[in-house]
Amino acid sequence: MEKLTGLKKIRTAVFISGTGSNLKNLIKFSNIKKSPISIDLIISNTNKAEGLSFAGQFKIRKKIFNFKKIEDTEKKVLLLIKKEKIEFICLAGFMKILSKSFIEKFDGHIINIHPSLLPKYKGLNTHSKVINNKDKFTGCTVHYVAAKLDSGKIILQKKIKVAVNDNSTSLAKKVLEQEHKLYPAAIMKIFN
């Protein structure tokens, strides 16, 4: 991707489905001077996503789409993204899988953060899998979104030690703390 010229920030959309802790973290990151992105749109697949409250708090446009008819919905999302001049998409706990067609039609990069050391433990319930398999390490990964789930090129990873007394809840908390550091670092890496 091209280097940034001047102070023009890259117009970014964040897709969420849940609490939005990574969204909030990305918004804070976007507000620092050296950040290459501005968060201009929040998209959710549910009106129950707690993270939508950050739209009002930070005065960012939000839009909720029902993904039951994926093809139709993705067309509407692409139209909105084009209208808003979005060049970059960050998935942050977005619980829908974007189609190959959407990924190909979007004229920009789409990245995702995943709570495991990919290629290990793609999909859901990563922390339970780590605990059940008695892994010594886990972590998180920021990667480009590809048609195959959690299989895109890895941008950055952060490895953390699994403590003897960790359970899936304590592990999720530890990994999330690292996600909040890794996501901005990966964005800096892409645009520098």
Task: Please sum up the structure shown.
The chain is of the alpha/beta class and 192 residues long. The protein is built from 6 helices and 7 strands. The protein has one domain: 3-Layer(aba) Sandwich (Rossmann fold), CATH 3.40.50.170.
Strand residue percentage: 15-25%
How can the largest sheet be summarized? 7 strands, mixed
Report how far apart the termini are.
9 Å
Write the CATH homologous superfamily: Formyl transferase, N-terminal domain
- Please, how many helices? 6
Classify the helix fraction into a percent range. 25-40%
Order of adjacent strands in the largest pleated sheet: 3-2-1-4-5-6-7
Mean pLDDT: 95
CATH architecture: 3-Layer(aba) Sandwich
H-E string:
EHEHEHEHEHEEH
The CATH topology assignment is: Rossmann fold
What overall geometry do the principal axes of the alpha carbons give?
Answer: globular
CATH class: Alpha Beta
